[in-house]
User: Fold this.
Amino acid sequence: MKILLVRLRLIGDVVFTTPLLRALRRTYPDAELTYVVEPAAAPIVLHNPHLTRVMVLPKRRGAARLVDDMRVANSLRAARFDVAIDLHGGPRSSWLTWASRAPMRIGYDIPGRAWMYTHVVHRATALLPRNSVLNQWDLLAPLGIDQSDASTTPVEIADDPDAAADVDSRLRDKGVDAASDLVIVHVSSNNPFRCWPEESFASLIVGLVREDVTRRVIVVSGPSDPDAATRIRERAAQQLGALAPALVDLGNPELPALRALIARAAVYIGGDSGPLHVAATTTVPIVAVLGPTLIERSRPWRHPRWFTEMVDSGPLACRPCDQRVCAPGDFRCLTGIGVDRVLAAAERALRHVDGPQGRSESNLRGDRLVHQ
Assistant:
């Protein structure tokens, strides 16, 4: 059997699909599994041992994109897939799924696009208290694959030994040895509804260092706001004064290095963005700061023995929301989260001793990458 999976765009959403890859491989041990992904999220599935091939779809605009899509569609059709699963539901992914001409095409019942599938799965429009992994898992129902749980089918990313070695080298160059408690604080998101205030992050960092001056804190941010880490680090350094050397500047690592850095840490702290779910593929303790999203929806999908604490503002009339317009206008779901609460959660995480820290959930190595 030959199975095609299509999931475009965001890093976190691609992480959510990785439990499905294990389930498909378990159900169809001899199948050829091909995954189509865009460049930014390709490292999530690269070397995944459950996949036979990863196709990276260029992310260009205008006429160049049409050329890319036609070329990839021809390649997919020539591969003669038996099953194609659209894990995304967007216009581009649904068209590619249809263009594969697979006899069985599975996707969500999205108006205007459901006709492209032979098997349509309902997707709730309401923001339900249900984990995003389970929403993806619904797409396996037409294949008769039952839902699993995080303890047996966690999210996963293959280890990258080269990235890990590079991170270790860079840390040594900064004077950070293996005995140091390393705190990773991710401070940005491409969605303003998921950004805790910068002054709150700075105060949190100051509190962590003052509690234990031997800690080393690395502040990172993503491509949506690459300067956020610098701004917050400088704000915290001003408050710390002579203790400022506890802040280690490694820049903003690319995805493989970021995961290797997180796997080396004593705790990861961040908002509801892709790196949170990258962190979930390690055993490192996690403290997540949520705005309008529900804990049940965004909780990292990994074995419950690994420390995970979600901090939110509690019940609000406007929460959850569709994250397009803040009805009260003051982002109270974020500004209402006190630094003391996140600091207390971080201290609990740092004291947590159940299970090893700084190791990956699984030691995956894998197959080959195909650029399209």
User: Anything to note?
Assistant: The chain is about 35% helix and 15% strand. Confidence is low (pLDDT under 50) at residues 355-372.
